[in-house]
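INFO  loader      accepted 1 record
INFO  loader      residues=471
INFO  predictor   begin
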Amino acid sequence: MGALYNQVADQLQALINDGVYRAGDRLPGVRVLSRQFGVSISTVLQAHQTLEARGFLQARERSGYFVRPPSHDVPEPSMPDQRARPVPVSAREMALDLCADEKKQMVPLASAIPHPDFLPVRQIQQSTIWAARRGLETLDYAFPGKACFRRQIAQRMATIGVPVSPDDVLATNGAQEAIILALRAVTQAGDIVAVESPSFPGILQALDVVGLRVIEIPSHPSEGMSLEGLQLALEQWPLKACVVVPNHSNPMGARMSDERKLQLVSMLDAAGVPLIEDDIYGDLYHTGERPRPAKAFDRSGNVIYCSSFSKTVSPGLRLGWMIPGRHMAGARQHKYFVNLATSTLPQLAMAHFLEQGGYDRYLRHARQNYREGVERLRSAVARSFPAGTAVSRPSGGFVLWVQLPEGISGTEVYQRARLEGINVAPGLMFSTTNKFENCLRLNGANPWTERIETAVMQLGVLAHEVSEQTG
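INFO  predictor   done
INFO  writer      dumping tokens
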């Protein structure tokens, strides 16, 4: 259910959406709402602050909270509507530039990396110290992964509808390696692989490393990959694999329904095309229950499940895993030949963290942090960017996809922002065919500070300037 103040905020938000409280209306006093909802005054005040962050309320000194006018609301981005053709993949230097920029103390709105304040630093330190005391156990090769780590992963997978044994789990150096191992297990250089469009640059880079061609399937900002577009591609091209992020995709934040996941799995299974699933954001849903992965609907071992703790616990641990299904032999072989094994110490530490229940306790706070961060960021974009800007409404994860009005170059905004010490990700990074020139991706996994708010306002100014010069 989430924190009590979130429940109160959700109920008040529903009243605003239903028109019970309209733009400009003053909400009842905190004591009245305290009695109405049967909660403390402190809880009501926290709910007000939450709704202010979401952009539904504005505080007026000595007057209370008022419903914010909806004039700054923005629609979701549109879905590309075009027939796709296979093209070679080229890793962009822009991605490397962004990583370098993050180290220059620029405002970090580009890379999809959580701020350290949102990570369980102290808990991981304690688990790492525990692991380091395991003596010789920390010094051996751990192929295909430490038994305790794979056992914890198997237990977690069972809770989301994927009953597997520890022997079905292969430890990897993050999800990126898992995806590369999956591609190498089921494809050869020159093969055609389908991906979502826009697509996470790391997936495009993985395809590049393996020497594959890509066919981009349009994706809906809420529903994910177009299954109609995928069916068309299956009929026209000899696809050898399909890479999808069904839960809170990067960069759009789309979440496929269970019905569409089942349809996706069945469609690819019937065509004999392996599905490589990246579920790295699955644990970061904002409300409700944890969404099931596509792997939960797999009955033939055709889905290769990949995930990691890089977006939840620590990007620096470089600790992920995969469940290759019937492709385990190929994945194990490539893993062994590439780097023998995944580092032992992080596996022991993470297994301890999971076993002690620290991960689930931490996630409850993390989900709230990312939900509020994304809502604050979306509200700020709506207030600052040019009219006609569209912004995604993710139900999980922490990135926003911003679609500027036609004619406004996201690349130009990105270049000007770098000069201002602001790091954003331009839309061109998320395609191999120069699409999404008028788009940006923004990272909402930052504590909301004056520096962040000012940076978003400055991005809006830059977007207005680019619009005026090209209009």
